């Protein structure tokens, strides 16, 4: 048996021992109690992202018990136009016209969105069973598929709609929202948890494009990538890698101006942030299920470092995506972690090539533990590559990744000096 | 709807708990071993319970009832991932143990003493959730690479790549242990 075989046997045995744990009693019973206590709900993780703009979800016990619990969403609906852009064009789906059928009450405006009239009627009837008063008093009822237009959703039920009861004319708050779902058509009504999708809210007669209510207490740490595009509704929007166009809630004071080459995004100080067609990454987070992107973090234009590298790694057929940002110490820039084939790769980005070069020269090429006047004990066996305005650090072990980095950036300018082992990479 | 007898999702509009329970119970030991291997014994039961609730809620969306087993395993793995990422969320992924001025500093003092007897365990805990999952599916459940790929929804090549990376890391820990 070779050393390799022996090591593999030890590792396999270790993994078997990790799983050799007695199965606790009552596990299925506990799951059963939880599962049957409530109706299927939307993904709670997505719902939690929507908390920015739900001021106060209030649960009202319905006559049908848990299945018919209603979430009352206090929604503030207002616009946040991007300065310098045209006013949003009218959404053709915002018809708001009363429909003769399906009927709700004699005075209700019913908007069925993309739902067939029969199914729309059935959905409303299901809601009415549990909430006759709310349906009767609704000034408007909006029904639409929970999946955004032009999107494909992998969801629990083939039929899933949001039913929104607007209690009074021109009062776009205290909206009652439910979810009606079923395998082939409307079958059950249940709680709506989380924020209403943007496309549903836009169907509410008189609704403006919604934005988060107030400033969130903390900026989410997520990143989104995409191409800046002109959009007649939102001024400047982000076209994601999945092809979907997304509204962006830009930082306060940001403006977009139409210039010869297209739209140009300016920050509050009048400096150019990015231009139409630029690939950017935007820090922040989603403001609800399929909602606009709250741009409260860094907005980084393409080729500052990690974006072009990411693109190159993907072209090399590696599984690569953006991880998270980190403090770039000991260097003066900022850092972005990329996850490449499950391993972390650090990209230190600098504002100028001069700054990047200064950082490069501060690293001892033969022993990168010496950085300027400091000694740093890197975890792993680090290798450093130099980009135009970035330094790439990889301490992993995947030869394909190293080969791709060599192809993209040339040979590493420094290597070795780590204390061995492997870096933490729980974000990948 | 034309359905085959014995399928869990026989009537997609109304999943039946007893049928789900019967089939899930048969996979419960496997699910628990999988979760224990990935997240550890203390949290395995909670993760599996969450996964069962997730599975029940999503049952009607299971397009191919014959795919129940890898589908349930994938839900367990996702729950494990969420658990690990929620518990260990870190912004930084490369650890800078220490940075000190050359003057007056002994470089050895900033080196963390490794626990020789615990290197394998420590190395495993440094693995990413994806690497943990692929090891657990391959070695704890003894699944072939094809089934691991099916569970994770990734190509077999990706499974092999992740396995190789994860094993390399653990092997490195073993070598350190033996020196």
Pick out its properties.
heterodimer; A: 428 residues; alpha+beta; six-stranded mixed β-sheet; 9 helices; 24 strands; 21% helix; B: 179 residues; mainly alpha; 7 helices; disordered N terminus
What layout of secondary structure does this protein have?
The complex is a heterodimer of chains A (428) and B (179).
Chain A: H1 3-19, H2 27-37, H3 44-49, E1 58-60, E2 70-73, E3 109-111, H4 117-130, H5 132-137, E4 140-145, E5 159-166, E6 175-182, E7 188-191, H6 198-201, E8 222-231, E9 235-240, E10 245-246, E11 248-249, E12 255-259, E13 262-266, E14 272-275, E15 279-286, E16 293-301, H7 306-315, E17 320-327, E18 334-340, E19 343-349, H8 353-361, E20 370-371, E21 374-378, E22 383-386, E23 390-394, H9 399-409, E24 414-415
Parallel strand pairs in A: 3-4, 11-16
Antiparallel strand pairs in A: 1-2, 2-6, 4-5, 5-6, 6-7, 8-9, 8-15, 9-10, 12-13, 13-14, 15-16, 17-18, 18-19, 19-23, 20-21, 22-23, 22-24
Chain B: H1 17-39, H2 41-58, H3 68-87, E1 96-101, H4 119-125, H5 129-140, H6 145-152, H7 156-178
What does this structure look like?
The complex is a heterodimer of chains A (428) and B (179). Chain A is of the alpha+beta class. Chain A has helices at residues 3-19, 27-37, 44-49, 117-130, 132-137, 198-201, 306-315, 353-361, 399-409; strands spanning 58-60, 70-73, 109-111, 140-145, 159-166, 175-182, 188-191, 222-231, 235-240, 245-246, 248-249, 255-259, 262-266, 272-275, 279-286, 293-301, 320-327, 334-340, 343-349, 370-371, 374-378, 383-386, 390-394, 414-415. The two termini of chain A are 34 Å apart. Chain B has helices at residues 17-39, 41-58, 68-87, 119-125, 129-140, 145-152, 156-178, and one strand at residues 96-101. Chain B starts with 16 loop residues before the first helix and ends with a helix. Residues 1-12 and 88-117 of chain B have low confidence and may be disordered. The chains are: A alpha+beta (428), B mainly alpha (179). The interface between A and B is large, with 77 and 83 residues. Strand 21 (374-378) of chain A pairs antiparallel with strand 1 (96-101) of chain B, so a sheet runs across the interface.
């Amino acid at each position: 048996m070779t050393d390799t075989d022996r090591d593999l046997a030890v590792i396999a045995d270790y993994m078997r021992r990790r799983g050799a744990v007695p199965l606790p009693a009552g596990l299925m019973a506990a799951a059963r109690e939880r599962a049957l206590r409530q109706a299927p709900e939307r993904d709670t993780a997505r719902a939690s992202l929507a908390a920015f703009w739900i001021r106060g979800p209030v649960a009202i016990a319905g006559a049908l018990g848990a299945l018919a619990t209603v979430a009352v969403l206090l929604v503030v609906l207002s616009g946040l136009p991007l300065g310098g852009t045209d006013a949003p064009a009218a959404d053709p789906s915002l018809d708001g016209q009363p429909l003769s059928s399906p009927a709700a009450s004699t005075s209700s405006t019913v908007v069925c969105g993309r739902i067939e009239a029969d199914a729309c009627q059935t959905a409303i009837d299901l809601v009415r069973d549990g909430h006759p008063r709310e349906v009767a008093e609704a000034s408007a009822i909006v029904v639409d598929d929970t999946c955004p237009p032009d999107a494909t959703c992998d969801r629990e039920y083939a039929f899933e709609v949001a039913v929104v009861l607007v209690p009074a004319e021109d009062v776009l708050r205290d909206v009652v929202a439910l979810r009606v779902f079923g395998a082939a058509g409307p079958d059950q009504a249940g709680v709506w948890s989380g924020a209403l999708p943007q496309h549903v809210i836009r169907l509410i007669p008189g609704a403006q494009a919604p934005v988060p209510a107030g400033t969130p207490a903390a900026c989410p740490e997520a990143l989104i990538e995409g191409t800046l595009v002109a959009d007649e509704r939102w001024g400047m929007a982000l076209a994601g890698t999945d092809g979907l166009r997304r509204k962006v809630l830009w930082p306060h004071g940001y403006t977009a101006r139409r210039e010869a080459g297209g739209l140009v995004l300016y920050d509050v100080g009048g400096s150019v942030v990015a231009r139409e067609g630029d690939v950017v990454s935007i820090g922040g987070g989603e403001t609800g299920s399929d909602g606009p992107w709250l741009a409260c973090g860094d907005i980084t234009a393409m080729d500052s470092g990690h974006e072009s590298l990411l693109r190159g790694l993907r072209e090399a057929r590696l599984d690569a995506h953006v991880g998270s940002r980190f403090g770039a110490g000991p260097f003066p820039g900022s850092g972005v972690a990329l996850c490449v084939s499950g391993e972390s790769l650090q990209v230190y980005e600098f504002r100028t090539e001069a700054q990047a070069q200064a950082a490069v020269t501060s690293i001892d090429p033969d022993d990168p533990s010496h950085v300027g006047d400091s000694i740093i004990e890197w975890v792993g066996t680090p290798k450093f590559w130099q980009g135009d305005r970035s330094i790439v650090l990889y301490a992993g072990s995947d030869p394909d990744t190293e080969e791709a980095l060599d192809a993209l950036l040339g040979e590493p300018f420094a290597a070795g000096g780590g204390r061995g082992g492997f870096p933490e990479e729980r974000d990948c | 709807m034309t359905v085959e007898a014995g399928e869990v999702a026989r009537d997609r509009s109304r999943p039946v708990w007893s049928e789900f329970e019967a089939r899930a119970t048969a996979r419960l030991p496997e699910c628990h071993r999988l979760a224990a291997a990935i997240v550890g014994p203390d949290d395995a039961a909670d993760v599996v319970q969450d996964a069962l609730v997730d599975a029940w809620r999503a049952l009607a969306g299971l397009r191919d009832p014959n795919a129940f087993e890898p589908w349930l395993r994938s839900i367990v793995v996702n729950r494990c991932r969420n658990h690990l990422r929620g518990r260990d969320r870190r912004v930084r992924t490369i650890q800078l143990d220490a940075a000190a001025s050359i003057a007056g500093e002994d470089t050895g003092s900033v080196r963390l003493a490794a626990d020789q007897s615990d290197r394998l365990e420590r190395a495993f805990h440094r693995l990413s959730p994806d690497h943990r999952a692929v090891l657990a599916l391959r070695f704890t459940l003894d699944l072939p690479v094809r089934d691991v790929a099916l569970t994770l929804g990734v190509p077999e090549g990706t499974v092999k790549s992740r396995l190789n990376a994860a094993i390399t890391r653990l092997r490195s820990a073993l070598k350190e242990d033996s020196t």
